[in-house]
Design a protein that fits this description.
Blueprint: H1 3-17, E1 28-33, E2 36-42, E3 47-53, E4 56-63, E5 66-72, H2 78-81, E6 91-94, E7 99-104
Antiparallel strand pairs: 1-2, 1-7, 3-4, 4-5, 6-7
């Protein structure tokens, strides 16, 4: 094994990791409740959305190209701890309330 072989192996490893990175920003927020689309919103607007259903409530914030849940009455608060999302493919889920928030890119 010579130096060229090592460089080639290193380059192949680096190139194989590129699909794991997702730097593509999305431009719309899709909110689903119990598997059905509730709303689709432009990610570049500022809006506060309160969702109340038989499972509880969530308050969703969209601001500066990011979306997050800042209030919820679910027992574990995992949806709040997920933090802000902004890239296409990012997801926030509140399983007790059956809410899914996804960032998608318009085609």
């Amino acid at each position: 094994m010579n130096r060229a072989d090592l460089i080639l192996i290193f380059a192949m490893i680096v190139l194989s990791l590129i699909p794991l990175t997702n730097f593509e920003t999305g431009n719309r927020v899709v909110i689903s409740i119990d598997g059905k689309i509730y709303r689709e919103i432009d990610l570049n607007i500022s809006e506060s959305i309160r969702i109340e259903n038989s499972y509880g409530f969530n308050e969703i914030q969209i601001n500066s190209g990011k979306v997050y849940i800042n209030k919820a009455d679910c027992p574990d608060k995992t949806c709040i701890r997920t933090g802000k999302i902004s890239k296409a493919g990012d997801v926030i889920a509140c399983l007790p309330h059956k809410i899914l928030i996804e960032i998608k890119k318009s085609h």
